[in-house]
Amino acid sequence: MAMKPNGKSIVSSDYDDKVMFFKDVSLGHHESQLRFGLINFWEAWNPIKKTLIGLEMLLIDEQTFLAYLFRLCLCFSLQGTIIQGFISPGRIEKYLPEMKRGSVYKLNNFYGSINKSVFRVCDHTATVSFSWNSELSVLLDCQTPFDEDSFRFHSYEEFQSSCYLKGDLYDVVGHMKLVNGQSIIEARVLDEVEIEKARRVLIYVQSHDGPVMKVYFWDQAARDFCKKFNSYEKTPTVLLVMTVNAKTLGGTLALTSMSSSCVFMDYDVQPTIDYFGCLKLGSNLVIAEQVNAEVVTKREAMTIGKIFSYIKQESAKDAFFECTATIDDVVHGSTWYYIACSGCHTKVTKGPTSMICTNSKCGKVNVARVAQ
Question: Among residues 227, 242, 234, which one has the least CA distance to residue 173?
Fold first, then answer.
C-alpha cells in the first residue's frame, strides 16, 4: 500500500496507479484516479438570476482493497461511499456527451471543494469538482454495486420536523396508494399527455404502517416518473424516491421532487426488493393495495360556495383544500401578513406537536406566534 505526501492512502498495482477512494477525498487538488458509478446528474440553476450554476452529480465508488498472498490477488469488496460531483458551466460540453446514468467511469485529476450546506444530497464534507486537467473515461465491463446503506431514509416524523429547513435532502420508501387520484389497482397506465399538461404527478405513499404522505413530481420529474411507471409489465407497487424536499401544502406534509431526485420501483434496488418482500408476506400486499377513505381521499372538484357550505355544517370536521383558480384582478393597497417566530420573525411551520421556526440558526420549537 503506497502513501501520498499528504498521508492519504492510495492503492497501487501493475494495472492501476494512484487509485483513491471517496473516503480519502479531501479539500484541494488531487492527481489521483477515482472509479465510480454515476447515479444521477442534473443542471443546477440560480432561481433568482436564472443563470446556470453548473452540472451536479451523485457518485458512488466501490471500496476494494488488494492484498497479495503467495502471488495470488485477493479482492475484498466493502461498502461504497456516496459523494457529490460538480462540473462548472464552461466544462459541461466537454464531459456531458460521455455521461450516462448507471455507467461506471474513471476520473484522473480533480479538485476537492467544500460540499454545500443547502440541499445536500450526501454526508461527505467534500465535493469532487472537475478541474482544467480532469480526464473522464468509461470503464467497460465493470459494475459498481449500489449498497443499501447508501440510501438515507427518513420517517414521516423526521420529514415533518425538517420542513423548510433547506438542509439535507433525504430518501423515502413505501407503497403507493393513489396515483393522480386513482388507486394503484385502477392506475394501470398513466396518461402522458395529461401529465404533460398538468406538469405534475401526485402520489400518496405509505411507509409500512406509518401515516400516508404526499409525494409530488414536477415537470421533467413527472414525465420521467410516468415513463418509468408505464414501462413495467405489471403495475408497480413499491416506490423509492431519492433526495426529496419536505414542505407543508394545505397544512399537510408534502414531499416534492428536486432536480437530483431518482426513482426506483419494486425490484430495481435492494431496499425496494426488501420492502416488496415484506408486502408479499401473508395478505400484506392485498392490504397495501386497499385505500382507507379516512386516510386518503381522492381529489374532488368543489366551488368556493360548496366549501363555505361545508364549513357552516355543525358536523364538519377539519379538512384541507387545494385551490386552483384564475386571478382576475390584483387589489393594491391591501395589507397581508404571515405567521412568524416571535424571536427572529422568520416564518414558522407546523410541527408534529408545536410550531417550529424555519430559521436554522434559530431553530426554536413551541415558538410564540406573531403576525408579520
Answer: 242
